Amino acid sequence: MSQLKRKETEFERFASIKRKREGEAEWSEVGSDLLECVMRRLCFVDILRMKRACRWWFSVGESYTSSPSYRPCFQTPWLLIPPPEEEEEDDDKGERKSNSSLCFFNLDEKKAYRDVCLCREVYEGRCVGSSHGWLFLLDKTANLSLFNPFSGARIQVEGSLKAGRSEEEELFDVDSYTADGTKYKKYKGGRAFILKAILMMSDIGKKKMNKDKDGVVLIHRGGEKLAFCMFNDGRFMDLDGAHESYNDVICYGNLVCAISQLYGFVEVWDFSTTGSSPSPTKVMDICSCLPLKKAREFLTTTRQVCCSYHFYLVESCGELLSVVRMVSEFMDVDVDVHENGKDNQPKKISLYKTLMFYVFRVDLHHKILVEMESLGDQVLFLGGNDSISLRVEDCPGCIKDSIYFTDSYWERADEDDSYGGHDMGYYSLKDRCVKPFYDTPHRYKMKPTPFWVLPNPW
Predict the structure, then answer these.
(1) Whole-angstrom distance, CA of residue 35 vs CA of residue 50
(2) pLDDT tier at 26 (50, 70, 90 boundaries)?
C-alpha cells in the first residue's frame, strides 16, 4: 500500500471514530428497511441519485428496483436532445460536431443531464424512437436493438426486416436507409427505414420486459408498412393493412391500433391468441371522416393556404384517443445560421410550425370518433416516441390539459441543413395556443431529433 493510500485510510478511520464520538450517524450504516421506505417515495431517477451515494446504498437500490414488489413512481418524461450549442465545435469541413454526449433535459428541473449511460449508436444519431424507457437503435445493416440508457441493459431484436423480401423490396430498404440513397430521398438516415417503433408488453402495469411474451411493432418503409416481431420468435411479419401509409401505432391492451396518414382512419388487430407465435387477427376498421373534417374547418377559418395534418394514437385513462396535429408548412423567418465555418450568416428559411391540436375519443364499440374539448387532469407527450398520457400530479413542471410535443415531421426535418427538429412546445386545449417549454434556437439543426423518454430501471 502506498504512503498516500495509507494516509487516506487512516484519515477515513479517524473521521469515522470522530463522528461516532460526536453522536453523528454513518450514512453508509443506514438500514435497508429505512432506505427502501425512502425509495418508495421517489421516482426512478431520484433512486439513481441515491445509489451513487455509497456502495451500500447502491446495493440496496439494486435489490429494491429488481424486486417483484417494486412499482416505479410516475414522473415527467425526459427529453433526449443534442448538446447545447456552446458545447459544439467545427470540424475540418466547417460543419458542427459535438464534443460531448447527448443530453437528457429534465422538464421539471429545466436542467440538462449528460451523465446518463449512452452507447455508440445513440451518439451517431441512429435512434429511431423510444417506448417504456427503451431506445430503439438501428445499425447500417438494418438490425434493430433496444437500449435502456438508465440501466445500461440492451436487447438485440433477432428478426431481420429484410428476411423473405423480394429484391425490389430489399433495394427499397437499403437505398432509403442510407443518407445518400438515390432511389428514395424522402427521408434520410434511420427514419427512412423505421418511422415508429413501440414495445408490445404483456405486463404494462409493471413495465418489466418478458422476452417470452413481448415483442416490437414497427412502422417502416417510409410509413408504408406495419410489421411485428416477438422476441422468442425472431421473425418480422407484416400486418396487412387497408389504409397504408401510417402515422402512428400503439398497443391498447391485447390490441394493436394503427392510424393512417391520409385520412386518420384507425385499424385494429387482436394479438390475444395464446402461444409463442401469435397470429394477429384484423378485427376493426374505423373510417371516421371527423378528424379530416375538423382539419379542413381549421384551414378555412384560419385561411392557412399551406398546412398539413399529422395523426397520433394514445391511451389515456383507459380510453383510446386520436389526436390531429395541424402544422403550417411555410413560415418565412430571417435567422442567423452557421455556414462555411462562419457565424451570424443571415438567411431566410421557410419553417414548418405546429399551430394547434384536435383530440377525439375512439369508441371501439360503436366504431365512431367523438371530439373532446378537454383532457381534464391529463398531459399528453407526443412525437417520435410511444405516445404517453400521464396525470398532471405525476408530472411536476407540466401544465394540465396540455399536449407536449416534439418534432416528428420526418419528411421535412432533413430537407434543410440549417433547420430541423425545432418544432417543439406544448399546446393548451384551454387557451388554444402553443407555447415553448425549451429554447430551440434556429441557428443549428437539432440532430438527432428530440423525443420523449420515460425512465425505467429495467
Answers:
(1) 9
(2) low
